[in-house]
Design brief:
Layout lengths: L8 H17 L5 H12 L3 H14 L8 H35 L6
Helix pairs in contact: 1-2, 1-3, 2-3
């Protein structure tokens, strides 16, 4: 079950949009200054807002990094690998058990 989000998606989108607009209006405004200014206005911790903005830039291809879709796919694939390894261990143990039942002289 996914974790509950502290902030609604609408607030996240609005805060990110306000940061982009603030930086467009004042090109010399750094990301840190913009997230501090906007974060106070919308009630979001600046560090949280900075992370959202950085991840959005990665998702748009403006920054290097792992996109949200890729991170989800990696997580899903890692889960699948864990499940397959577990199933493989069970099958290996079962085949060993049944092999002993068929021929008790085998050393395993």
């Amino acid at each position: 079950m996914p974790a509950l989000r502290k902030y609604p998606q609408e607030l996240r989108d609005r805060a990110q949009r306000l940061v982009v607009e603030a930086r467009e209006q004042d090109p010399e405004l750094s990301l840190n200054q913009a997230v501090i200014r906007i974060g106070e206005r919308v009630g979001v911790d600046p560090d949280t807002l900075r992370g959202w903005c950085k991840q959005a830039a990665i998702d748009r291809g403006e920054r290097p990094g792992t996109s949200t879709d890729d991170a989800k796919r990696i997580k899903d694939l890692e889960q699948e690998v864990r499940e397959l390894k577990r199933a493989n261990e069970i099958l290996l143990a079962a085949s060993s058990f049944f092999a002993r039942e068929l021929d008790p002289r085998l050393p395993w």
